[in-house]
Amino acid sequence: MTAALPLTVMVLVGVGSPAVLLAVLGGASIANRPLPERWTGPLAAGLMLTGCAALAAAFVIHGASGGGARLISYGAWSTSHEGGIAIEFLVDRLSLAFATLAVAIAGVVSAFSNRYLHREAGYNRYFVLLALFVTGMVLVALAGNVEVLFVGWEFVGLSSALLVAFFQDRPAPVSNALRVLTVYRISDAAMLSAAVWLRHVAGTDSLSLLFGGARASSASGLDAANATVIAVLLIIAVAGKSALLPFSGWLPRAMEGPTPSSAVYYGSLSIHAGCFLLLRSAPLLEQAATARVLAGTLGAATAVFAGIATRVQSDVKSSLAYAALTQVGIIVVEIAVGWYAVAFVHLAGHACFRLLQFLSAPNVLHDLHGIEAAIGERPRRAGRARNETIVTRLGRRLFLVALERGFLDSGLDRLVVRPFIRFGDRLTRLDEWLCATVVSAGQSFTALGGDDRDE
To answer: Are residues 179 and 276 located together in one domain of the fold?
Structure first.
């Protein structure tokens, strides 16, 4: 009982710090009085440091008090229906560790971005979206019910898509952002469907049923069939957010954003958000063998595909993105086979490593160009002659598949987008025909009524 109050306060400070940053920067932007750079940078760094320290302290307090899962409630933000929508956080070692990691990485990126985006026209807009993203990541990490999880999930997706379109004066970033947002909508629909199904079956929106193991699930009547349905929907949501097959096509498109946002979104945190949710719901997967097989298959296929695709990318950011996706697929496989501790250590280490790679990529390219200018040619890779001799028909086909990024975009356009557009066009023509028929019938009736009155 003595540790409950400090833990509650530390969690509130950890969640509130990025939320306060979002409120301050967003409010100033709405009032058309954006803060100057000399204030924005220190404010973001200070609040990120405060949130990271508070969550780290909460992790220590929670560990000292026994380490069991706790549900912390801060009241309700809506009472329009029975039970309302409560603000609840499910706190354990996994959620606190991931939340601390997320805020720490965001703090490093904010410090880097302060110099990288100096005098950039969208400087303030970038930090508003970064604060929105960090708030969403903390909510996803600590969510105790479906409402909090869905709000955080939406914050992450919305900020990701808007940062892809950061350079909005060019058509390519906007087009790619719409593609990213479309995939996220599919992920969000799957997440919402899982929430509705959970509410329908168990009569509650508490995530302790998904994260609490077989005992909690059986106590609420969540049998194997319903657990499988919810788990499959969660896997679809994870596949969209973490760019697993068949949704991997949006990942290279997301590289249109600034390098710091690429680092924090698609190198370290956002692409791992789906992995974390899958790891969080591992007790549910243990009751659904079909879902575990599906997750393992998607993870393995994604790792193989991304490993092939990353070898032929012509720009460093796309190459790093596919390299990160390879490790994400392996992490999903580790979760599917039950290696939960290994999966989390892999996730945390990979997030930090990719963050360093993305942030140092501009310097590496600058140094490489300097070497090329000095020696007069591109440095040759070791083993290149050996690779050139091993050219087979299979190798050519794999090269073509990798070069075209698995034909994912063209396949989805042909199988999903174009049929959907044609279906919409047919509905539009049907609507026009019905409207014309009704208008024509109304005019005929009016004419007949007028003739009767004349007689």
So the answer is: yes
